[in-house]
Amino acid sequence: MAKREVDSPTESTQMSTMTIRSTEPVLRAGGAEGEAELAPPDGGYGWVVVACVFMLINSTFGVFLSYYHTKATFPNAPPVYFALIGGLSIGLAMAIAPLANYLSQRFNFKVPLTLGVIIFVGSQIGAGFSTTIGGLFACQGVLFGMGLGLLFVPALPLSNQWFSSKRALASGLLASGSGFGAWMFSLSTEAAIQHLGLKWAFFVNAFVSGGVLIPVVVLLKSKSLSLLLHPGFIPILLWGTWSLLGYIISIYTLAVYVTAGLGMSQKRAALCQSILSLGQLIGRPTLGLVADKLGRFNVAIVSTSIAGMSCLVWWLSFIQILILTLSHPLGFFGGTFWSFSGPLTAEIIGLKHLSSALSILWVTLIPASILSEPVGMWILDRDSPAEEIISSPRSFRPAIAFAGGSFVMASVMLYGAKRWKQGSWHFFVRT
Length: 431
Prior knowledge:
The protein contains 19 helices and no strands. By secondary structure, it is mostly helical. It is globular. The relative contact order is 0.15.
């Protein structure tokens, strides 16, 4: 067969362009299918959705944990029991994800949200009436975690349906709401405990939560695939697991470290927790905005790595002013997973199966959620008697290494997802 001649300079130019482009990294179109089907408006009522989810989640368990650790509220209860309550609340929030996802698909996403409000508020009222460690486990651990899961699992993916080019920014803004809530509630909870007592602190939190959550549920609006073996999704699961190990140990142990390790006051511990939460409030939308410009995987990898480094620097700073100052960058970068889990999963899986993928992600994180803080406390107690922890900040160093190393390991795992998405190991490709 005769070789065909190039008919015109234009055709020659087109062929040359095709050749050049073929050498560039090719991004896998994981999210293209979902974007084409749903056609996100990239704003509009989506900002109302972001504002609603922003107000949805708050947790001040670190303040309560510090109080339990320093006050004999429940005699004969080991410190690890209180740590387990915090882990249990997050673990059950993940465990209930399949039920929340089922109720959303079978009925409407507002069904699990409504149940979540009832259980979430009721758990805090029940915790206020608890006089035994068992009652506290049931209310502040089990019921609180169930309510939390029924709230955030159906609500978290909603913003992805409303945004495309601004998806990471929107996700960062709504995820920063937990920082805002924790910032406000840390100070108010500490004040309520000091002036009204533990019981009424729970009641005040329940009343405020109900007043915020009911209008949020009213205003929220919405616009099965085998994922466990998905080569791009597996690194996301591992990134989430390692991130959660570092994150939970960091935020829950901060107040204990300040009071027990450094001998500072309960008020100063609440201030540190508040500064960390303020970092979350500022950091999550800021990182989302940067990620939409520089690449979501790139920013998430760098931020997770910085979280590990800041964790190490923060823990090793025994000077009080440095503790206060360095709590902010840990909050700024430490919650990267919560800001980016939705957008990065959508990049890999697509919008069509995003709810199912996130449900699998939450279930996968159950062990890390429940066991991270008990593991952190076990590391503290392993080589040192309990009385040494109160007077020796160096006793916290093994937990420092574990938390910081977990963040670094998480960034390595996420780099594997970036490699699958872009088809190469080049870091500076915008992905």
